[in-house]
Design brief:
Chain A: InterPro entries: Brnchd-chn_aa_trnsp_AzlD (IPR008407). The structure holds 2 protein chains of 2 kinds. By secondary structure, chain A is mainly alpha-helical. Chain A has 4 helices and no strands. The longest helix of chain A has 25 residues. The two termini of chain A are 20 Å apart. By secondary structure, chain B is mainly α. Chain B folds into 2 domains: 154 residues, no CATH class; 88 residues, no CATH class. The relative contact order of chain B is 0.13. Classes of the chains: A mainly alpha, B mainly alpha. Chains A and B meet through helix 1, helix 2, helix 3 and helix 4 of A and helix 1, helix 2, helix 3, helix 4 and helix 5 of B.
Chain lengths: 112, 263
Amino acid sequence: MMTMTTWQAVATIAAVSLGTMLTRFLPFMLFPDSRRPPKTVTYLGRVLPHAMTGLLVVYALKDVSLFSGSHGAPEAIAILTITLLHRWRHSMLVSVAGGTIVYMMLVQLVFA
Amino acid sequence: MALLRTAFRAALPPTLPIAAGFLFFGGSYGLLMHAKGFPIVYPLAMGYVIFAGSMEFVTVNLLLSAFDPWAAFLLAIMVNARHLFYGLSMLDRFRGLGWKKPYLIFTLIDETFAIDASVHVPTSVDKGWFMVFVATLCRSYWFGGITLGWLAGGILPFDTKGIEFVLAALFLSILLGQWDDDRDRKRDDGMRSRSATTNVMDSARPHVPALVGLLVPAACLALFGPDRFMIPAMTLMMVAFLMLRPKLEDAGGTDAVLNGETR
């Protein structure tokens, strides 16, 4: 459940929206007449997207504790499942659905 | 009216595969928001003003943590930094479209970028309206998914405990897909220009961005803890990439799709 007040929630969503919109509108503000962006920018444009996905994976797993509770076992099993499903079907839908269902079953039935 | 109809007819087919994905992920997001006790107006409003799937999922966590709008703002920029580069590639395409231009920028996401940048629109079809319809269709799939997922949350016959793992599952499967893309690109590259000597270093090189993205944040998480690792991780990743630039740039060359060099 949310611990924030409604206004804090609205401010948080507004901050996320502003940050997101900045990433969308900034190129068009910086290069209004289609000026060529500098090399460093295009280089970062190539390497950053794939790195940010890694960061998001770590972010999504940040509260997993390896030293207490179930020692990250349900997470590890679900990650293995997702990797195998990916190898097998190469479908994002199948991997995500399969991994989440396995995780939900593990935390509700096995590690409950 | 005929102008609108032909543009809509051209825009619908390429968005259909996205409809399946958005109904599923929007549905998961709606379900997650329901499980965390949010009224439906929250996911719908977030879908409207953010409209960036990953960040909407992350925002669920933000809303459940301590109030810190500045960190939320910075995180949104870093997570969505790829939009900057989509924008750079769309500078030409969005030029001279009047009121449609700000709408197209407002709704720019991975999927609309992929369609707008790759689909060959016949000359009989108005390009501006085509892209506007691609965006509105994608948005309606997303809102539809959210609504269905949230409503389903109230009548599901099973416990939704653990549903939050959908976030990690989503990011991990995106990462796995990108990992394969990197490897395939490397293979093409090797066939064309490189000698047969493929050592470990060489085969690891296309994965360096993904590895930096995993290892730097993991190290920062161990050092700074779950509540304070994001900003140092993002900073160190930028530093790492600027330092690795001489090594990574000569290997890049072939994938100029995102930086607009192909157009």
